[in-house]
Automatic annotation (TrEMBL):
Annotated protein name in UniProt: Aspartate--tRNA(Asp/Asn) ligase
Residue ranges annotated for the Aminoacyl-transfer RNA synthetases class-II family profile domain, each copy included: 140-555
EC number: 6.1.1.23
Keyword Lyase in record: no
Enzyme class: ligase
Annotated PROSITE patterns: AA_TRNA_LIGASE_II
Chain residues that bind ATP: R219, D220, E221, Q228, E482, G534, L535, D536, R537
Length: 587
């Protein structure tokens, strides 16, 4: 057995005989003396072999990078002047006495002992090597500290960890299901859970009162940069608590987590209604580290001849908004062109702008291709409304409200990042008062959260005017990322049926898909609610990583494949026959 981890050795161990187990990080031959840097999960220590110990010297000479060794030796101070202040073990070294090679290693596909630019594909294909890198080890260990803290907090607050099935029925969280064919029920499929939503509600009906689970969830979505087909939620459900009480318990948990692990005081989280978030930031997960806001100017431009602005200003579904960038007049034409290209991703047909050179000169002091179309008066009124100052640049979005919100919302973040406009390191908030439904783009409505979210009105009111109704949902947002979201749920059948009705789900369909839930609601379902946090995103933010793949041990690629195991893979004809499945080749 080892006596110490490599990374733990310090001055106070000088004189001790020790045993280390680890990997050869690097081997150097310095004129007849062999130096091995030996690495384990706690760090690296330098070991020296003198030629006077013939046997171990020869062995040390023969090892290569990533060989696994057992080593006995004694700790001594490094000779004066050779200490390494950059290494935690840099004051000492180990004089190697006995060396045993526990396993050899082929030359690794990429070097670990020096910084090398390695493509993510190569890293993921050889993830077991990649995971040896200290920075990834640090992140995964930090992840473990996070879950440890959270489990502790929840257990101390009366929450019970209960596992829910992975082979189950579809849960409508808005993504496609991963399906698993059943061998014993021909032509039938399990769905992997998009979340434990329905089971956690059933647990409340069963009287567990407070549930949590660090749960794997599966969603077959078109993948964006920070999504994974399987990911982990900190899933929570409670009975008899109001939204404010649920918010308070979970906010205390996240505040405690940041304070304990990062020594950061997040303070009390502000609450912002969804409508205000969209109005001021064009987003339901506003990044409040940046001060810029979207300002409506439709009333000022509704009557101008410039149709690009006037038409959306007169359209009830349109929006004309301005985004004033402090100091933005320094942006070059090329930068503005790049931003124009950027907003086109969100469907914006262009990006109008006005540079504020000198307000004292009135409209003369404005530089812009559009002032002549808007008229000088209107242009100056807009400057006044947005509070523009000399040296600023004002961008405009004019289109359907959805496009303006998405385009200017994203532009706000990009400009904020590019011009380093962060005013603080952490900006948490709760977004509340979400609409219950949104347009599904096909003339119907779809649930903004999921169809088990409680509306803030009676079933009759909901059916009469579903469009404007709010739900009892809440999202926790941190630095523009949705960390978690949840709601108070529907706990009576009548309301659940009303919601299904608005969503166009027939009684038969509801019975077929969620009969078990409707049935459970008949037998004394308590008022209940909860939420789920995305663990991967939380770890990503707390470790300052740029992708969630950096904080997942074995992540999938953007095309939802595992390069390490080569999954998904083909299966044998016999397996398919057993499942009564015939694979049709894509035409
Ligand atoms: N099940 C929801 C989700 O996965 C979270 C919740 O409402 O508790 O987004």
């Amino acid at each position: 057995m080892r006596s110490h981890y490599c990374g733990d050795l310090r001055k106070e161990h000088i004189g001790q005989d020790i045993t280390l187990m680890g990997w050869v990080h690097r081997r150097r031959d310095h004129g007849g003396v062999i130096f091995l840097d030996v690495r384990d999960r706690e760090g690296i220590t330098q070991v020296v072999f003198d030629p006077d110990r013939d046997e171990s010297f020869k062995l040390a000479d023969s090892v290569r990078n990533e060989y696994v060794i057992e080593l006995r030796g004694s700790v001594r101070a490094r000779p004066a002047g050779t200490e390494n202040k950059d290494m935690p073990t840099g004051d000492i070294e180990v004089l190697g006495k006995e060396l045993r090679i526990l396993n050899k290693s082929d030359t690794p596909p990429f070097q670990l002992d020096e910084h090398q630019q390695v493509g993510e594909d190569v890293r993921l294909r050889n993830r077991f090597i990649d995971l040896r890198r200290p920075e990834i080890q640090r992140k995964l260990r930090f992840r473990s500290q996070i879950t440890h803290y959270i489990r502790n907090y929840l257990e101390n607050n009366g929450f019970i960890d209960i596992e829910t099935p992975i082979l189950t029925r579809a849960t409508p969280e808005g993504a496609r299901d991963y399906l698993v064919p059943s061998r014993t029920h021909e032509g039938h499929f399990f769905a992997l859970p998009q979340s434990p939503q329905l089971f956690k509600q059933l647990l409340m009906v069963s009287g567990f009162d407070r549930y949590y689970q660090i749960a794997k969830c599966f969603r077959d979505e078109d993948l964006r940069a920070d999504r994974q087909p399987e990911f982990t939620q900190i899933d929570i459900e409670t009975s008899f608590l109001s939204e404010d009480e649920i918010i308070s318990i979970t906010e205390t948990m996240i505040r405690g987590l940041f304070s304990e692990l990062l020594n950061v005081d997040l303070g009390e989280f502000p609450h912002m209604p969804y409508s205000e978030a969209m109005q001021r930031y064009g987003s339901d997960k506003p990044d409040l580290r940046f001060p810029m806001e979207l300002v409506d100017v439709a009333d000022l431009v509704a009557a101008v001849d410039f149709k690009v602005f006037a038409a959306p200003a007169q359209d009830p579904n349109g929006r004309v908004a301005a985004l004033s960038v402090p100091g933005g007049a320094e942006l070059t034409r090329k930068q503005i062109d790049d931003y124009t290209k950027f907003v086109s991703i969100y469907g914006a047909k262009g990006l109008a702008w006005i540079k504020v050179n000198d307000l004292a000169q009135g409209a003369e002091g404005l530089q812009s291709p559009i002032v002549k179309f808007l008229g000088e008066d209107v242009a100056l009124k807009i400057m006044e409304r947005v509070g523009a100052k000399n040296g600023d640049l004002v961008f405009f979005g004019a289109d359907k409200a959805k496009i303006v919100n998405e385009a200017l919302g994203a532009l706000r973040l990009k400009v904020g990042e590019d011009l380093k406009m962060h005013q603080c390191e952490w900006a948490p908030l709760w977004v509340v008062d979400f609409p219950m439904f949104e347009d599904d783009g096909k003339g119907g409505l779809t649930a903004l959260h999921h169809p088990f979210t409680s509306p803030n009105c009676s079933p009759a009111e909901l059916i009469a005017h579903p469009e404007g109704k709010l739900s009892r949902a809440y999202d926790m947002v941190l630095n523009g990322t949705e960390l978690g979201g949840g709601s108070v749920r529907i706990h009576d059948q009548e309301m659940q049926r009303a919601v299904f009705k608005v969503l166009g789900i027939t009684d038969e369909e509801a019975e077929e898909k969620f009969g078990f839930l409707l049935n459970a609601l008949r037998y004394g379902a308590p008022p209940h609610g909860g939420l789920a946090f995305g663990l991967d995103r939380l770890v990503m933010l707390m470790t300052g990583s740029s992708s969630i793949r950096e904080v997942i041990a074995f992540p999938k690629t953007q095309s939802a494949a595992c390069l390490l195991t080569d999954a998904p893979g083909e299966v044998s004809a016999a397996q398919l026959r057993e499942l009564n499945i015939k694979v049709r080749k894509a035409p």
